[in-house]
Amino acid sequence: MLEIKALTASYDGIHALRGLDLRVGDGDLVALIGPNGAGKTTLMNTISGLIRPDQGEISFDGADIRRVSPHRIARAGLIHVPEGRQILSEMSVAENLDLGILAAGDRRAGPAAAARQRDLVFDLFPILAERRWQIAGSLSGGQQQMLAIGRALMGFPRLLMLDEPSLGLAPMLVSQVFEALGRLNASGLGILVVEQNARRALDLGRYAYVLERGRVVLHGTSEDIARNPTVVESYLGTLAATAS
Ligand SMILES: Nc1ncnc2c1ncn2[C@@H]1O[C@H](COP(=O)(O)OP(=O)(O)OP(=O)(O)O)[C@@H](O)[C@H]1O
């Protein structure tokens, strides 16, 4: 589904991605972990067309998307929930969800399919149904994250990319959001998720990539990564004390 080869990207000549390979198959749930500055956000922004790569390949369903605009990438079914959520805080929950339909473009199904998709979002996050007429900016951080995911779902994604969906969320809300991601994946949706907390990432994903300084330094099944001595020492050991 998503295939990345030898990808490089930079900011004003400073390399952020240095020859990165990654693959997300149909219906996979893949977690990206790594320290601050490893390039996780840059990778997501490059995949979704917000940053032009210097070199390398990015293909989605076999099509080269390196020079494709972000809205066309979303139309193809690759939808990005950026870090910081970026919901429209002056608009209601319902209006934010309706805007998500635009991402589907030509793939947009009729009103009946959109209504079914809205029901799916409300089933996944019942609080959004309760608050559908509320101004989005008045939601809690966790509810805003649910809205950001809900809005992305309204674009009928085939691969959903999420950048740190747990950032700033209370542990109970993290569990709710991750449980929702697990349910979506079980229904066939491909998911690529950046998660700062390695323990959570490995619990969530079936497959994981560890990024450091713009490169993949390790990848494998979550069980294998969780047993890797370097990961245990660098990520799990120190995080065990702070993990919720
Ligand atoms: N807009 C920017 N301008 C210049 N350099 C940037 C910019 N954004 C990121 N960088 C640099 O690119 C590298 C990768 O950053 P990136 O934000 O992709 O890492 P990350 O793994 O997502 O880290 P974090 O967990 O802190 O978000 C870092 O060295 C960072 O300082």
Structural write-up:
Keywords: Amino-acid transport, ATP-binding, Nucleotide-binding, Transport. The protein has 244 residues and is an alpha/beta fold. The protein folds into two domains: 2-77 and 157-236, P-loop containing nucleotide triphosphate hydrolases (Rossmann fold, 3-Layer(aba) Sandwich); 85-151, no CATH class. It is 41% helix and 25% strand. The protein has helices at residues 40-47, 70-75, 93-102, 111-124, 126-130, 141-153, 171-186, 198-204, 222-227, 229-242; strands spanning 2-11, 14-24, 29-33, 55-60, 63-64, 78-81, 159-163, 190-194, 207-212, 215-221. The strands form two sheets. It has a six-stranded mixed beta sheet, sandwiched between helices. The protein has a four-stranded antiparallel beta sheet with strand order 2-1-4-5, with helices on one face. Strand 4 (55-60) and strand 5 (63-64) form a beta hairpin. Helix 3 (93-102) runs parallel beside helix 6. The longest helix has 16 residues, at 171-186. The model is unreliable at 239-244 (pLDDT under 50). The protein binds adenosine-5'-triphosphate. Residues 11, 14, 16, 34, 36-42, 196 line the site of adenosine-5'-triphosphate.
Quick gist of this model?
The chain is an alpha/beta fold. The chain has helices at residues 40-47, 70-75, 93-102, 111-124, 126-130, 141-153, 171-186, 198-204, 222-227, 229-242, and strands spanning 2-11, 14-24, 29-33, 55-60, 63-64, 78-81, 159-163, 190-194, 207-212, 215-221.
